[in-house]
């Protein structure tokens, strides 16, 4: 395994050297064979015991140089100047067949200098949850970090109860977070901040002119656009990230940190499941507002490079453009879900009408959009009036109806990782310490836009409509 270390080579200010723990009995539980292949690791698909040693910390693979990355972050609105990887080890970067540079990071691999009071570990269920949810998002077409494997450690992890321990290996186009910029800005380390900016531009936004005077402003604008896209994609499928702290906001625009994430069933923008999110700060319908807020924090961090009046005004212009840019992207996304090909004045109201009815009658979000796509005649009667307006809007041109249907099929999944199914599969996995249930579930999740033999089994709605469902952070 030939790792490169371009991030680590930025210098010691960016990380702490850290050796992963070495668990006594690493066992491979989940392996992402297609991802392994794209990383040139196909050989490991046939050597589970070597894969388990490599991706648990027991053995350092190839030219890996494990480090824990430094970052800060605003958590629930409050700034913490030093977070960093307290239970993760970056191994380095691998090049994919198609020339992309991807980072591999162990999570749950033991304490580092950033652990504070944490034990550096990860329990089995959250590790498997990260694997399932990131694969599901990837298959749904949502930008996301991915998971290469989950290895059980054979060691206990103490939370409210004793859990089996595990390490999940994350694959990300980078681990640079808004909080990484905040880390250097808050220390007044303009040299590292500028280095980080150049690096992030080269790695994620190579089309930008890195020598332009306003490169930081352009960068902010591009990061914002990707975050707008990300949140709209989350809303398209009803994903609630659950802990959109600035340390969980990746500069690449990928979904990162699946700790307390969940899916919305019944449509309600106030939906929130995270046990610690008492105010609903990270509720489904708040995600746009929060990303806007997070982008303002990124702007503030970048201002540590240049806080001239001119530059400040430029940053402000970008931040102020958020709502308009978001609204545009949001409506475009929903036009696809509704099969609307061109743009008409009343589209926004048409959409609002549907969402209102769904909320009022407690209808399942994904199920309704799937029915709209596949079997509009099966929609509940409370939608009849709305449906007439929608059909009128679609018109009756057969060719364009086909085009509408194609748009909708690509935007409205038949399969999402519903909370109660995720929990049932996790419970089964923990009880048996085998991957059977997870693999079955993944098979369905990996084809979210087509009906397969097992789809129905994993798409049934929860009897209680997710009432009382709770998720947990950092466990
Ligand atoms: N068990 C733990 N031991 C040590 N540090 C931890 C532990 N759990 C979380 N942390 C640290 O607390 C901070 C916030 O945790 P958070 O839950 O957002 O991240 P995470 O799930 O560990 O990782 P990531 O954001 O990389 O997916 C991070 O600095 C993280 O490393
Ligand atoms: Mg995190």
TrEMBL record:
It is an enzyme of class 2 (transferase). It catalyses: L-tyrosyl-[protein] + ATP = O-(5'-adenylyl)-L-tyrosyl-[protein] + diphosphate; L-tyrosyl-[protein] + UTP = O-(5'-uridylyl)-L-tyrosyl-[protein] + diphosphate; L-seryl-[protein] + ATP = 3-O-(5'-adenylyl)-L-seryl-[protein] + diphosphate; L-seryl-[protein] + UTP = O-(5'-uridylyl)-L-seryl-[protein] + diphosphate. Its EC number is 2.7.7.-, 2.7.7.108. Transmembrane segments: none annotated. Keywords: ATP-binding, Magnesium, Manganese, Metal-binding, Nucleotide-binding, Nucleotidyltransferase, Transferase. The keyword Signal does not apply. The keyword Transport does not apply. Its cofactor is Mg(2+); Mn(2+). InterPro entries: SelO (IPR003846). The active site is at 247 (proton acceptor). Mg(2+) binds at residues 248, 257. It comes from the Bacteria. One of its GO terms (molecular function) is manganese ion binding. ATP binds at residues 84, 86-87, 107, 119-120, 170, 177, 257. HAMAP family: SelO (MF_00692). Belongs to the SELO family. Nucleotidyltransferase involved in the post-translational modification of proteins. It can catalyze the addition of adenosine monophosphate (AMP) or uridine monophosphate (UMP) to a protein, resulting in modifications known as AMPylation and UMPylation. This is Protein nucleotidyltransferase YdiU.
